[in-house]
Amino acid sequence: MSIAPDHKSVFLSIEIESEFTRGPGLWNFNKSLLEDENYIELIAFYCPHILEKSHDVTDKQLLWELIKMELRSKTISYSKQKDQS
User: Fold this and answer.
1) What is the DSSP letter of 71?
2) How far apart are CA 9 and CA 38, in angstroms?
3) Which pLDDT belongs to residue 85?
4) CA-CA distance, 21 to 16, in Å (whole number)?
5) Positive or negative CA dihedral for 33, 26, 49, 63?
6) CA nearest neighbour of 43 among 77, 2, 9
7) 10-residue block means of pLDDT along the chain (85 residues)?
8) Residues 6+ apart with CB under 8 A from 59
């Protein structure tokens, strides 16, 4: 066994010339949407379309993830639109 390491040091230097712009951040579901009639109608309208779009998915876990993804997308869009008005 050797007391000298068999690895060499690597130094990395990065220069960043422009400022970073922040992304949209973390999104949390606002449960007050469940009392919004327009939101409820929107989701009720899109559910059959989401299921039809995913009719060929046989894996139930994958289907559930796809449904959640689509509903989350519609919900975020609706929330942003509602916030701007």
Assistant:
1) H
2) 60
3) 79
4) 13
5) negative
6) 77
7) 72 82 82 95 94 93 95 93 86
8) none
The amino acid at 53: K
Residue 55 lies in a domain: yes
Return the pLDDT at 4. 67
Contact yes or no for 54/69 (Cβ under 8 A): no
User: Number of structural domains, the chain?
Assistant: 1
Tokens encoding 25: 């951040």
Question: Which run of H or of E encompasses 38?
Answer: helix 37-53
Q: How long, in residues, is the chain?
A: 85
Give residue 66's domain range: 32-84
| Alpha-carbon span 49 to 9, nearest angstrom | 56
> 21 in a domain, yes or no?
no
On whether residue 54 sits in a domain, the answer given is: yes
